[in-house]
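Side project, low priority. Logging it here so it doesn't get lost.
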Amino acid sequence: MKKTPCEYIVWNVLPCIRKHLAEALHRKGLSQREVASMLGVSDAAISQYLSDKRGSRNKFDPRIMKEIEKSADVLINGGDVVEEICRICSFIKKEKMLKEEIC
């Protein structure tokens, strides 16, 4: 059964968005605990995201990475994580990046 664009984003893209967003937040100086709290996941999940060596091979399209960096800045300045993740997903859907392997 073919997944709808929204189902595809939730099952295939959202975990990668969280991983790359966690990496961006950590690069910007947040601790693992702060990143975990901000993204609503466990410290262990963030530790896994940040230590996963496969991450260097699983890069998003550069346009998506730019949006993730923007979201990290918004979150550091008090933005809402759900709104930012939705914004990234909307960008991916709008740009019709679902047909290619994006993660």
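Brief comment: Residues 5-94 form one domain.
Revisit when time allows.
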